[in-house]
Specification:
By secondary structure, this protein is an alpha+beta fold. It has three domains: about 200 residues, no CATH class; about 100 residues, Gcn5-related N-acetyltransferase (GNAT) (Aminopeptidase, 3-Layer(aba) Sandwich); about 190 residues, Aminopeptidase (3-Layer(aba) Sandwich). It contains 19 helices and twelve strands. Strand 1 and strand 2 form a beta hairpin. Helix 3 packs antiparallel against helix 6. The chain is elongated. About 5% of the residues have low confidence. GO terms for molecular function: aminoacyltransferase activity. This is Phosphatidylglycerol lysyltransferase C-terminal domain-containing protein. Keywords: Cell membrane, Membrane, Transmembrane, Transmembrane helix.
């Protein structure tokens, strides 16, 4: 008994895949059975008690139900509760039809056994989406068409090898048994064609990029403004380069970007916790329906159970530095340099201020001047997707921390707050060399003090890419390559410098991940994330302007 109890979780975990195979197998069986000749002795006995019209209808309906089981197998694999219920109904309806179409009791027994085997596993199909929202992929439709064609070939072979197999084909077509099988196969083929056309027309188009004038932007703002629904980097939804999927309630959304065949969700769904898994399933199914390569980028550890439920592979891509603000102090040896820079800047006359969103327009010319000067001295252009860029409309969405020196703004950082004040972070950080040295240390200290005064629980410094990956003999290959890049790839990116700058504040380091259906697609997705963020190859190749 203990063994059976321990086996139960494994059985429920395997139930969706096994149920899909069972349903698909039963579907093929019904299609093949409808295509084969009837057993003469059984058929004669059946004709004595059953009207011929009922036999004809049983053949047609049985063939259609076989096709329905093939399609429902896709929903079972996706763990749809409605697919499980529909499969049970179809099997229980198709079982007695096996007796009515030619007393094929073997089909009836197999269908009843399959239904009995699937019945205890209702809880293995927790998704509540309607069957009409099931995005059947082109590959699944092609597979169903091949199985249907195979059933037709079985029928052709069966009749060619029957007792009257030497008769001309036109003579066979007037035979009632042959005509019945051909009709059942043709009806199923037409039904599959109709279903395929309906799904082709009914499959949702790739969601368009939602700009600032799009009504969806108002929905995004409303969701972000609710307590407990967002994280600091969820504010990237307002950048104007994302596509969105919304939950039926309208209280949750998932944002993603598209580059080539890659569909990359940025972070987990934002909004109600109970709607996140369903949105992830919709994202994966919609990507599959468009023959795209789905992935989810920038996941925290608490997000992993949902993507594991989708069957995704996971790879660590770095670590996020989070500093709890309760009891924060600038004192301590590790923060000594930042403390001295802060005091020197304050003594020199630097002043800190957080400008609310409604006041940002008035200082926009100064921010633009600083941003242009900063960009001129750095490689690459404006960022996007996983990083914010300087776009006046986007900058005005958030509070902006500024540092003034001698009456002029010399540094600024745009802030990412969240409604429940669990944490906040910064997006853009830009400055000019017109004031005290290490002015950004001054800005950070003042910003942390401001966060404590405003009641925020933590400050998110953002991710250090490739940080925390291990080069061990048994570590995954991607982790070992990432560790090598972190140690020796400073010419490509300042990996260690980013880690050291964040680490001097003595934060907590939390892992961050990317997830995809197959492990080998993760490098492709990471390359596309980089291109989406940098603005393509042109953005990656852009070099800083020379000042000589």
């Amino acid at each position: 008994m203990r063994f059976l109890k321990d086996l139960k979780p494994a059985a429920f975990a395997a139930a969706p895949a096994v149920s899909a195979l069972v349903a698909g197998g039963c579907g093929v069986m019904l299609l093949a059975s409808a295509a084969r000749p009837s057993e003469p002795e059984r058929f004669v006995q059946l004709l004595q008690t059953t009207p011929a019209l009922l036999i004809e209808l049983s053949h047609l309906i049985s063939s259609l139900l076989g096709l329905v089981l093939l399609i429902l197998a896709f929903g079972l694999r996706a763990r749809l509760g409605a697919a499980w219920a529909a499969t049970m109904i179809v099997m229980l309806v198709a079982a007695p039809l096996g007796l009515e179409k030619g007393f094929v009791w073997e089909d009836t027994a197999i269908l009843l056994a399959a239904a009995a085997a699937l019945a205890p596993f209702r809880k293995a199909f927790p998704r509540t989406a309607r069957l009409s929202r099931m995005e059947v992929t082109p590959g699944w439709l092609v597979s169903a068409a091949c199985l249907l064609a195979g059933a037709g070939l079985i029928g052709v072979w069966s009749y060619q090898n029957a007792d009257y197999g030497d008769a001309p084909f036109w003579r066979l077509m007037v035979d009632a048994d042959v005509a019945r099988s051909v009709r059942a196969w043709v009806v199923a083929a037409i039904a599959l064609l109709a279903f395929g056309l309906w799904r082709m027309l009914g499959t949702a188009a790739t969601p368009r990029v939602a700009g600032e004038d799009d009504p969806e932007f108002a929905r995004v703002r409303a969701i972000l403004s609710r307590p407990g629904t967002a994280r600091p980097n969820s504010n990237l939804a307002l950048l104007g380069d994302k596509r969105f999927l919304f939950s039926p309630s309208g209280e949750s959304f998932l944002m993603f970007g598209v580059r080539g065949r890659s569909w990359i969700a940025l972070g987990p769904p934002v909004g109600r916790v109970d709607e996140r898994l369903e949105l992830l399933w919709r994202f994966r199914e919609l990507a599959d329906a468009h023959a795209a390569r789905p992935g989810v980028y920038a996941l925290d550890a608490e997000d992993l159970p949902d993507v594991v439920e989708l069957g995704f592979s996971i790879q660590k891509i770095g670590e996020v530095a989070v500093l709890p603000l309760l009891g924060f102090t600038i004192e301590g040896t590790r923060r000594g340099k930042a403390r001295r820079a802060w005091r020197q800047a304050a003594e020199a006359g630097a002043q800190f201020e957080v400008v609310p969103p409604e006041g940002v327009a008035a200082i926009m010319p100064d921010l633009q001047r600083i941003s242009d000067a900063w960009l001129a001295g750095h490689a690459g252009g404006e960022k996007g997707f996983s990083m914010g860029g300087f776009h006046p409309r986007y900058v005005q969405e958030f509070p902006v921390a500024v540092v003034r020196f001698e009456g002029r703004i010399i540094a600024f950082a745009t802030l990412w707050p969240v409604a429940d004040r669990s944490s906040f972070s910064i997006d853009l950080m830009r400055y000019v060399d017109e004031g005290p040295k290490r002015i950004m240390d001054f800005l950070f200290v003042e910003l942390l003090n401001w966060g404590m005064a405003e009641g925020y629980a933590a400050f998110d410094f953002g991710m250090a890419p490739l940080s925390g990956l291990k080069d061990r003999p048994l570590a995954p290959m991607m982790s070992r390559v990432g560790s090598l890049l972190f140690d020796r790839g400073e010419d490509l990116y300042n990996f260690q410098g980013v880690r050291e700058f964040k680490n001097k504040w003595d934060p907590l380091w939390r892992p961050r991940y990317i997830a995809a259906p197959r492990k080998w697609t993760i490098p492709l997705l990471l390359a596309d994330v980089s291109l989406l963020t940098s603005g393509g190859m042109a953005g990656l190749a852009k070099r800083p302007k020379r000042t000589d």
